[in-house]
């Protein structure tokens, strides 16, 4: 970046900051807590820490990552709802967050009212993995064999209601095989079970699979998105293997407590978007097989609504209840 461009960027940031009320200008007044609804070491945790490192440079203090796994994100969501709506407590969410009302008859919060969407961080394919010794050479052969089993097969996921669980529901519907999800404390733990032969299959975000696949410890059968991943280019899509239209993945975003003041929404949106789009975070996310987004609060709210409209009927059709 030239000196002139650097000066222009700094000037624009300074002018944007000066337009905010005093409370937003002096933010953060103390360390910001970022709640992660899953255990350390999983995809959501890795993404949260990647963005936190960039925010630390901007804020001059390191955000505190607080892992609160349990109940498909409900435990973490309750913690966020109880926090003061001042911007000092945030949560990284994934696919299951807007869909929990479909899974649970009653929740201890209102998913629409009690959360403030800030930004979508990014998105990534999911990967269907099997043990290295699996005899089926592709997804088509694997699911055809699964169809022949009256009780179906089990597969590992990081939890009920997650993107991996939903991808398994979709795979069951399109392949005709009975697939039963087995929740684990994390996606990495599910992969460990596959590696040791304790499970025939696992579905995980790409970034959890990359190194294990390269080391030959698991064998990826398919990615779940419409296009192949540049990170694992030799792994075909489900659509390429006979399941036309199969297209789903995992996404991550940031929400704050409900009733967050508009000036704080603006400040957090700006800071998070710049962190996500920074060269360092962009490079790291792409290295992990993810596509950075950094959307506006309005765009993220619309995206959450579209996820609800897309997956609500699927969940109802599969009659999935998690009580």
UniProtKB/TrEMBL annotation:
<comment type="similarity">
    <text>Belongs to the UPF0065 (bug) family.</text>
</comment>
<protein>
    <submittedName>
        <fullName>Tripartite-type tricarboxylate transporter receptor subunit TctC</fullName>
    </submittedName>
</protein>
<keyword id="KW-0732">Signal</keyword>
<dbReference type="InterPro" id="IPR006311">
    <property type="entry name" value="TAT_signal"/>
</dbReference>
<dbReference type="Pfam" id="PF03401">
    <property type="entry name" value="TctC"/>
</dbReference>
<feature type="signal peptide">
    <location>
        <begin position="1"/>
        <end position="24"/>
    </location>
</feature>
<dbReference type="InterPro" id="IPR042100">
    <property type="entry name" value="Bug_dom1"/>
</dbReference>
<dbReference type="InterPro" id="IPR005064">
    <property type="entry name" value="BUG"/>
</dbReference>
<keyword id="KW-0675">Receptor</keyword>
């Amino acid at each position: 970046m030239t000196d002139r461009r650097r000066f222009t960027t700094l000037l624009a940031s300074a002018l944007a900051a000066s337009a905010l009320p005093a409370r937003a200008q002096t933010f953060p007044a103390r360390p910001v807590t970022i709640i992660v609804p899953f255990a350390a070491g999983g995809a959501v945790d890795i993404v949260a820490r990647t963005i936190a490192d960039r925010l630390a440079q901007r804020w001059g203090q390191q955000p505190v990552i607080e892992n609160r796994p349990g109940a498909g994100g409900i435990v973490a969501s309750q913690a966020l709802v109880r926090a003061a709506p001042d911007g000092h407590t945030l949560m990284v969410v994934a696919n299951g967050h807007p869909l929990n009302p479909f899974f649970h008859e009653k929740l201890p919060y209102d998913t629409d009212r009690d959360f403030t969407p800030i930004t979508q961080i990014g998105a990534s394919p999911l990967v269907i993995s099997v043990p290295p010794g699996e005899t089926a050479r592709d997804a088509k052969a694997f699911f055809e064999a699964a169809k022949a089993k009256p009780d179906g097969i089990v597969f590992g996921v990081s939890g009920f209601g997650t993107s991996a669980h939903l991808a398994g529901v979709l795979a069951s519907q399109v392949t005709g095989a009975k697939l039963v999800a087995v929740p684990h404390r994390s996606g990495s733990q599910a992969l460990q079970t596959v590696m040791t032969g304790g499970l025939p299959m696992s579905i995980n975000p790409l970034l959890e699979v990359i190194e294990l696949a390269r080391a030959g410890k698991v064998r990826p059968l398919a990615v779940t998105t419409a296009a192949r991943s540049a990170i694992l280019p030799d792994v075909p899509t489900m659509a390429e293997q006979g399941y036309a239209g199969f297209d789903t993945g995992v996404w991550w975003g940031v929400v704050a407590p409900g009733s967050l003041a508009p000036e704080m929404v603006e400040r957090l949106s700006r800071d998070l978007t710049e962190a996500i789009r920074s060269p360092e975070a962009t490079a790291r996310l792409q290295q992990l097989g993810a596509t950075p987004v950094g959307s506006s609060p309005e765009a993220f709210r619309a995206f959450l609504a579209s996820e609800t409209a897309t997956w609500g009927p699927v969940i109802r059709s599969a009659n999935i209840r998690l009580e």
